[in-house]
Amino acid sequence: MFRGFTLILLLLTVVLGALAPTLAQDVIELEAWVAFSDHRYDWAVDTADRFNALHDDINITMVSVVDYDTIVNNYTLGREDGTYPEIVQLFDAALQFAVDSDWFSYAEEIIAGRDEVLGHPVDFDDIIPVISNYYTVDGVWASVAWNTSTPIMYYNVELLEQAGIMELPLTWADILDACAALQPLVDDGTISACASWPFSGWFIEQWLAQQNEYMVNNENGRAGRATEFNLDTDAYRAIAEFYRELYTNGYFIFEGQDQWGPPTQTFNSGKVAIMMSSSAAARAISEGAAATGFTLETTGMAYNQDAPGGWLGNILGGATMWISNGLSPEVEDAAMAFLLFFSNTENSASWHTASGYVPVRNSSIELLKNLEPGNELLWDIPSGARVDIEAADWYAAFPNFLTASTQLGNSTVNNATRGSTYGTFQQSRPYYNGLVEAYMLNGGDLDAMIAETNAELTELLQEYNFLFADE
Amino acid sequence: MEEIVYIVHPIVVTLVGAALGAVYFAFLRWQTQVGSLNASLVVGAIAGAIGATMLTAPLGYCMFQDGQSDEDVIVGWIMVTLGLLLTLNIGSVILWRYFRGQRLLPRGDTTPGAFRGRFGFVYAMAVLSPTILVLIYFVYLPMLDTLRFSTFLARFGAPRTRFICVSNFSRMLGDLDYHSNLFLSFALSFGIIIIAMSLALLIASMLNQPIRGANIYRTLLIWPYAISPIVAGSIFGLLLGTESGIVNRVLDLAFGVKVPWLVTVPAAQVSVVLASVWNVIGFNILFYTAGLQTIPKDLLESASIDGASAWQRFARITFPLLSPFTFFLIVTNTIYAFFDTFGLIFVLTRGGPTESTFTAMYRVYVTGILASDIGKSTAQSLILFLIVVGITIFQFRVGQRRVQYGNY
């Protein structure tokens, strides 16, 4: 008797389990992977909930994945066994791979000329051109811009003033001068060193662009598929020498490759005067500065004053949202509608206040300059909810948040500042960053180091091209 | 059809294997004075021929073809050697068991009556099949894939792959970076094993004393092992940051110094070893505590009545009786140090500064997962696999003679 009952129960479970998907079929379930886990993830979840509230038949679930690199790896492995999300956030370094892999449907092709998708307006012209340009592949708008950033400098104004520096440093030479002036504060134990920032390959890419130099041939892979590395340049050498000078003089605290947390903590606690980071950290660093009680000011990323053309411009950084291919038209539309909502005027403005990422729409900047009560745009980190921005002009009240937009707006757009695109981007970063690290720490024969690394990276790139490029 | 030109012809390879096999078996025959010489020669030649070709033939002897580099040919001969080691060892064991009239497989401790009868075998297989299927699907088939991929230029998501014979391996022969990764793996592993085991033995001995709250200490001491290496790395990252780390904060307040733990040599290597030791030591303490409890008290008491000092009791009684545990721990710690520390390194140092903590397993992870370069990374992982198999065999050979099992 008991056995029979168990059997019936088991059968019932199986049948119900099989039926469940069909019963719930009227709701389209979508997963979106993003590379955040702090308050920026909370913002994304909140915004997805807002979208879900508008659409009874769509449910977007946000999934937090460790970081940019991991998200690409997990998605790649997921493609092998069929467990990948409908929407994925991919960073700039994965652009070529995203194109080559043939795993994504392009936004413009999904939209197919419509003015709106499920009630969410497209309004492509509103997106800031430098941003839409970056993610346009073969003339087609491929992914949806969401978090766009650029490196900027962060300064502890009181410390600089204590050292007698009244103007914020703008160039490498300014930084070295400021560090020399700050040395007495280091000696008397007020601060630990002049500067610290994450030792990231991203900054090297940016500094090459500023000096109008390419990372790879064929104009950074923008005029044709890149086939060779281009490290043997004065611009790259200058970067290595700058780091070496900072380090050997004891101006710079090195905390290891790609360690973003420790330098930020050091700066936030007032133990160094100068820090470089993504504009995306503007909100977190503002909070840190306020907590420690110092005045924070920002400028554009310091540049090489000796470069032939001076400062040319910076590359757009950050990531965009890609839609997996092979989805049904309904699911594709749901994903597209969500991304349009996610990056609409209000949400893009709110996202900017939550992080420091540049608003991707002109209308968002306008909105932030002409605020009215009841705007509900400011992300309140402790409560995890949107509250009103009380100022009438966000940028007037928080000028540090304007620096990134200004830097990108003033950038000359050419194939150096559009940034490089090639298949082994992720793989190569630790090489050209590691070379500068090795030279900074130990010195050595820079030319020989460059020749060796350049050859190695070229070989990897050619192997990649052999496997991916059209024959 | 185009004729393939060989640098070393497959027939030569086969003959060399056969000759070596015959000579080795003849030598064994002379040494043991058991069995017939002719049979030894014939079986030895067959085993040798199989050994020489078993790894090279599936690749079509490509490494011996014209146009391959010297390194490829060297890798080819290494493959011949590995094949020979395998077939000659197995072959000699089987042949001499036959010569001595023994069963080919030693009879295990089977309980009489289990799985006997007409459907005994079927029933046994039915019971075992879930495990076997899981093992086949999740362990053995991926291993075959690893073997296959190691001969390819391949990347995740790529529309095509390319067979490149043994280039992934021969490239490593001349790659000085890889050699230093390997050397580092040995050096760090050695440090981890020595410190983790001696410290564990010390702590376990202390725990074995009648002290109040021993159970609490025991639990607290074991829990680091329950933490994954990644998390252990994060914890040590918070502790050891140059400016933001807690350790330097304390050192600075107490002595006015800050140690750049993670960004200078050899401090970074020491940090990786210490973090790994902390991570694995709970496991060792667990086994040593269990081991110490198996040592009969009366033995130690009588030794002490006979006037043996505490050190003598430890060196002459406790340590030898713990040898099965020590042996087991050496094997498992070797595997931990070689294969499981990469997550910790990833979080703690990213292999830096200047690749000074870039172990061979971390290289496998970086190449295969971070860079999707699966051909190279599978080749690297096979090298590591062979090294650990080699170490383990060595440990069994050397260890077993000194390990004392048995009844006391």
How does this model look, in words?
The complex is a heterodimer of chains A (471) and B (408). Chain A is an alpha+beta fold. Chain A has 2 domains: 24-149 and 316-410, 3-Layer(aba) Sandwich (D-Maltodextrin-Binding Protein, domain 2); 151-314 and 423-468, D-Maltodextrin-Binding Protein, domain 2, CATH 3.40.190.10. Helix content of chain A is 48%, strand content 15%. Chain A is built from 20 helices and 17 strands. Chain A has helices at 2-23, 39-54, 68-81, 95-101, 107-111, 129-134, 157-162, 172-187, 201-210, 217-221, 234-248, 261-268, 282-292, 329-342, 345-355, 362-369, 394-397, 403-410, 425-442, 446-468; strands at residues 28-34, 58-64, 87-91, 104-105, 116-117, 120-121, 136-137, 140-141, 144-149, 151-156, 195-196, 252-253, 274-278, 296-300, 317-324, 378-380, 385-387. In chain A, the strands form 6 sheets. In chain A, strands 1, 2, 3, 4, 9 and 15 form a 6-stranded mixed sheet that branches. In chain A, strands 13-10-14 form a 3-stranded antiparallel sheet. In chain A, strands 5-6 form a two-stranded antiparallel sheet. The radius of gyration of chain A is 24 Å and the shape is globular. The N and C termini of chain A lie far apart (68 Å). The mean pLDDT of chain A is 91. Chain B has 2 domains: 1-105, no CATH class; 170-402, MetI-like fold. Chain B is mainly alpha-helical and 408 residues long. In chain B, strand 1 and strand 2 (162-163) form a beta hairpin. Chain B has helices at residues 10-32, 37-54, 70-99, 120-149, 167-173, 176-207, 214-222, 229-240, 246-255, 267-294, 297-305, 310-321, 323-340, 342-348, 360-370, 374-402, and strands at 152-153, 162-163. Helices cover 70% and strands 1% of the residues of chain B. In chain B, strands 1-2 form a two-stranded antiparallel ribbon. The A-B interface holds A 69, 73, 76-77, 79-80, 97, 100-103, 192, 196, 253-259, 261-263, 265-266, 269, 271-272, 424, 426-427, 430, 434, 437-438, 441-442, 460, 463-464, 466-468 and B 153-162, 237, 241-245, 258, 260, 262-263, 349-350, 352-355, 366, 369-373.
